[in-house]
Design a protein that fits this description.
mainly beta; 23 strands
Length: 278
């Protein structure tokens, strides 16, 4: 199909480098892929790549829990967690890879994610299905966001984002770019990142889409909004770190505290499961 990509089993089976007919699709951080290390901050371990999964109980800035006092790093622990039970199966023209990722601690959350990646011969698509199950005996926060990291030459001056959505700027920096959220500019020094929240429109089977397009090619994301109703757009056209994100999820990157305060924090009850399709 011309699509080539690299998976990282010790980083939750996230997708690192990806290219189409030799053309890179993603931004990757210098010297990556980095091995998981709980002694380093999330940003120092950030690989970039086509998919960095954020969660499973926290997505957003570092914070101290307003109730328990627990300290949480940026975007949670998932991407530092090793996949196990890795299995590859071929079925006719399809190839299916599956694995299990467990995020838990004694006397704390016990969440298990089963990830299945399906490919069809000759078709340049990646189908990802994640099912998260609460194996514990207490309800737990569930925050999952798919950080799809794009870079040059897919993202460059003149690239456009297309989405059927109402758009809300996160802060004053994003407000200044509200009229150009869908157009990507040339790299510039000291650019302040802009983040937009999209209230997406889904079709009859609860599917939403977003795409980034330039004059040569494009990349389209499609996901099921039943369990992932949010879309975050990250624009960072800063010189030297020109990287942008398309980020479907069941949350926006605001953290547990803020989500709980406004009633957006989703909870997963004991033995219940939630499935995400992208």
């Amino acid at each position: 199909s011309g699509l080539t990509f690299t998976l990282l089993p010790d980083r939750g089976m996230d997708i690192w480098m990806a290219s189409y007919n030799g053309m890179p699709l993603t931004w990757i951080s210098p010297a990556s892929p980095h091995a998981p290390d709980y002694g380093q901050s999330w940003l120092r371990l950030f690989n970039g790549g086509l998919l960095t999964t954020c969660g499973l109980t926290h997505v957003g800035p570092p914070e101290q829990d307003n109730i328990s006092g627990e300290q949480r790093d940026l975007h949670g622990n998932y991407t530092r967690t090793r996949a196990s039970q890795i299995n590859i199966e071929a079925h006719g023209d399809s190839l299916r890879l599956s694995c299990v990722v467990h995020e838990g601690r004694l006397f704390g959350e016990e969440l298990q994610l089963t990830r299945t990646i399906t490919l069809k011969r000759g078709v340049p698509e990646i189908h990802l299905r994640d099912t998260v199950t609460n194996l514990g005996d207490m309800s737990q926060p569930l925050m999952v966001l798919y950080h799809c990291i794009l870079g040059y030459p897919l993202i460059r001056e003149g690239t456009e984002m297309v989405a059927a959505s109402a758009v809300y700027p996160r802060d004053a920096d994003a407000k200044s770019g509200e009229g150009t959220w869908d157009r990507y500019e040339a790299a510039s020094p000291n650019y302040a990142e802009q983040v937009f929240f999209h209230h997406v429109k889904a079709d009859g089977d609860s599917t939403a889409s977003a795409a980034v397009l330039n004059d040569q090619f494009g990349l389209k994301f499609t996901w099921d909004t039943e369990n992932a109703p949010y879309l975050t757009q990250w624009k960072n056209t800063r010189q030297g770190s020109y990287v942008c994100g398309i980020e479907p999820g069941n949350c926006i990157p605001e953290g547990q505290n803020a989500a709980r305060d406004v009633g957006r924090l989703q909870m997963l009850n004991p033995q219940d499961s939630r499935t995400f399709d992208l």
